[in-house]
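Subject — a protein and its fold

Tokens — whole-number codes for backbone shape
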Amino acid sequence: MTHKGSWDTIDQIASLMGLSCSGLARACKLDPTTFNKSKRWTRDGKPRWLSLGTVAKILGTAGVPRQELIKLLFREEYESFDN
């Protein structure tokens, strides 16, 4: 699982639901800026990772089966196994 892959998955889920990242955050009852691109890195340039609690909220809100979310989050690893 990579930082970029995790955030790409959030973007993809929002898109599939017909929402912006802010809309997905609101649907998850989170601050609307939670998934903003500017929040994906700390001020000192370190990657900011999703918490398990946030992932659980996304699962519950989006109705994404756990297995599908795992495939999305770990897609780089799955793709490397195929090669």
Observations:
- The first helix runs from residue 3 to 16.
- Residues 75 and 81 are 10 Å apart (CA to CA).
- The two ends are 17 Å apart (CA to CA).
- The mean pLDDT is 85.
